[in-house]
Recover the amino acids of this structure.
């Protein structure tokens, strides 16, 4: 059976730029996808020649893994373009080698890319959490109520949320926050944090509750993390468009815009 | 000099500029080409359409072009030239001190020339300790620009807290080279670490309290980590190169980044820069002077971008770092025309 192109694209949508916390399909990185029998070849382009090779390597590997899971796929070739180390990365990833095997002289053999990936998953978690808390605060949900919320206290209604801060109070209306909730819960699942209805909605990345008194200090760091991801995302998309999609040269919309609330 | 509608004169120092040669003849293969193509993408994407140069002009502009863009059309009273050597990418380097010195020679009163060093060059290499001493002697440099991402033979970068770097910082202290501009960019080695990690700034800022570390690009793309360090260390500053052009394409992003920086660092440790020739200063300053933080951001962060703060960022902060008496300098520059091709621009 031949793999289906739609399935391949769906698989690619599960591959994230680890630094930008967004799928490579939404960022516009994915180019030609070629299917020949069970052999799928994916071309993708990173925004600059100097994009850090560690992150590029992670993306190439993830593409290989995700596309490899699509029914009918027997072989995957991943080819990244526009990177200073693309030849080494392409050869290594397609031979199934690890990062340390491809760059034995330039990598601490005791370190692994998973630790790096985790650092950025945490930043993504903070950014998504910050966006959601920001929406709630802007709709006058009190800090004391925010930190007490269980996942089951929040109801989606189209693009909006209804937040039940206590059983005897009318729920509070938080417009446009449904997408932020979905993105935040998605990240909680990736980090294996509780997502059942009884679980605290907002915890630290270690699953600990946040005290209302500490919320301000906590958010001071997370809002910078959120802003940083948004800034980088828009910069990377802009650089990509300028070089490879000139018709979108002056399109300043960004996947990161959903992190910019206000 | 920028003059406001009510006549207030704002002294401008463009704190991060270059006089580079990235022409095809100077490129060493695909690395030199890849470098300038990447810069050009930044320029093209973030400049207003009518401020975009041709690639050819961007690769190699003249001393006169730079003087016109900065001093005649760009409100700039003084600029600081930062060296980016990149000898592995360009035959004669990208903008080493010798090239930057051409602007200094033509406009000595308007140019602050900085040097650089690279601990991997040891005592006698072209960017070694002796070269640093010579630069002090020849140009009386008060600052250096460090580019930790620079490739050198088999090495693809270094860290500020590498033991080999310490004798260089000690020498800087001895020689009175107190302004250490640091570019945090894609250091490629070691490959498995976060290439933009700013933690090494923290170490050296603690160990060398007599030096000021100006982190160019404000640690973007690691803003949150940078802000944290700059708050802990009084001698860590932020340079606004690359942040500035967002004022045009994404003003909301610009506003929030500025609010973050003002919140964490305050108004006294930030310096304006066009990053010339990545961008030109004229339009950036026009937009910055008319820019106001949105009310919701003012309320949330509790900071304001007042006229006084703008004045500090545009020139007074950098003047303090480099020991420039602004009133004396203003007076001096009033009597020195910017002559291009031997003629004043008005005549030319």
């Amino acid at each position: 059976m031949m793999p289906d192109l739609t399935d391949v694209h769906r698989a690619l949508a599960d591959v994230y730029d680890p630094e930008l916390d967004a799928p490579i399909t939404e960022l516009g990185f994915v180019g030609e996808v070629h299917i020949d029998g069970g052999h799928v070849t994916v071309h993708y382009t990173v925004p600059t020649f100097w994009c850090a090779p560690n992150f590029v390597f992670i993306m190439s590997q993830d593409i290989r893994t995700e596309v490899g899971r699509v029914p009918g796929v027997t072989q995957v070739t991943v080819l990244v373009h526009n990177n200073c180390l693309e030849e080494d990365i392409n050869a290594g990833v397609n031979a199934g080698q690890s990062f340390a095997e491809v760059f034995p002289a330039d990598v601490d053999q005791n370190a692994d890319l998973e630790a790096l990936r985790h650092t950025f998953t945490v930043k993504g978690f903070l950014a998504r959490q910050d966006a959601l808390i920001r929406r709630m605060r802007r709709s006058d949900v009190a800090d004391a109520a925010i930190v007490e919320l269980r996942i089951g206290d929040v109801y989606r209604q189209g693009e909006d949320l209804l937040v039940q801060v206590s059983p005897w109070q009318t729920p509070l209306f938080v417009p446009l926050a449904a997408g932020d909730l979905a993105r935040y819960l998605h990240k909680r699942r990736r980090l294996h944090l509780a997502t059942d209805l009884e679980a605290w909605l907002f915890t630290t990345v270690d699953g600990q509750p946040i005290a209302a008194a500490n919320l301000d200090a906590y958010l001071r760091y997370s809002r910078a993390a959120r802003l940083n991801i948004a800034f980088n995302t828009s910069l990377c998309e802009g650089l990509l468009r300028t070089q490879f999609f000139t018709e979108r040269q002056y399109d300043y919309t960004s996947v990161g815009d959903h992190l910019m609330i206000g | 000099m920028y003059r406001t509608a009510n006549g207030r004169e704002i002294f401008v120092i463009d704190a991060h500029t270059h006089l580079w040669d990235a022409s095809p003849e100077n490129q060493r293969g695909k690395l030199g080409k890849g470098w300038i193509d990447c810069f050009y993408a930044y320029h093209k994407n973030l400049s207003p359409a009518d401020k975009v140069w041709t690639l050819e002009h961007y690769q190699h502009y003249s001393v006169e072009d730079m003087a016109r863009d900065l001093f005649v059309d760009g409100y700039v009273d003084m600029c600081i030239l930062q060296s980016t050597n990149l000898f592995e990418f360009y035959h004669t380097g990208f903008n080493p001190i010798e090239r930057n010195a051409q602007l200094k020679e033509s406009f000595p009163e308007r140019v602050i020339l900085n040097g650089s060093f690279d601990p991997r060059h040891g005592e006698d290499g072209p960017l070694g300790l002796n070269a640093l001493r010579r630069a002090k002697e020849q140009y009386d440099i008060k600052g250096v620009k460090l580019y930790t991402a620079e490739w050198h033979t088999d090495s693809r970068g270094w860290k500020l807290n590498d033991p080999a770097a310490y004798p260089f910082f000690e020498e800087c202290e001895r020689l009175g080279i107190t302004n250490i501009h640091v570019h945090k960019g894609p250091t490629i080695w070691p490959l498995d670490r976060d290439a933009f990690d700013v933690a090494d700034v923290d170490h050296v800022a603690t160990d060398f309290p007599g030096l000021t570390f100006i982190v160019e690009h404000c640690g973007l793309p690691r803003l949150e980590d940078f802000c944290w360090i700059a708050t802990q260390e009084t001698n860590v500053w932020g340079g606004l190169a690359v942040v500035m052009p967002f004022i045009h394409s994404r003003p909301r992003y610009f506003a929030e980044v500025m609010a973050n920086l003002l919140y964490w660092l305050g108004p006294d440790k930030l310096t304006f820069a066009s990053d010339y020739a990545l961008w030109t200063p004229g339009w950036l300053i026009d937009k910055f002077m008319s820019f106001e933080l949105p009310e919701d951001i003012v309320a949330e962060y509790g900071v304001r971008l007042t006229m006084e703060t703008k004045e500090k960022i545009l020139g007074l902060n950098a003047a303090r770092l480099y020991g420039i008496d602004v009133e004396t300098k203003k007076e001096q520059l009033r009597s020195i025309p910017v002559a291009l091709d031997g003629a004043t621009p008005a005549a030319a």
About this structure: The beta strands of chain A are 16-17, 22-23, 30-36, 39-45, 75-81, 154-157, 160-163, 172-174. The CA atoms of residues 6 and 12 of chain A lie 10 Å apart. The first helix of chain A runs from residue 5 to 12. Chain A touches chain B through 47 residues (CB under 8 Å).
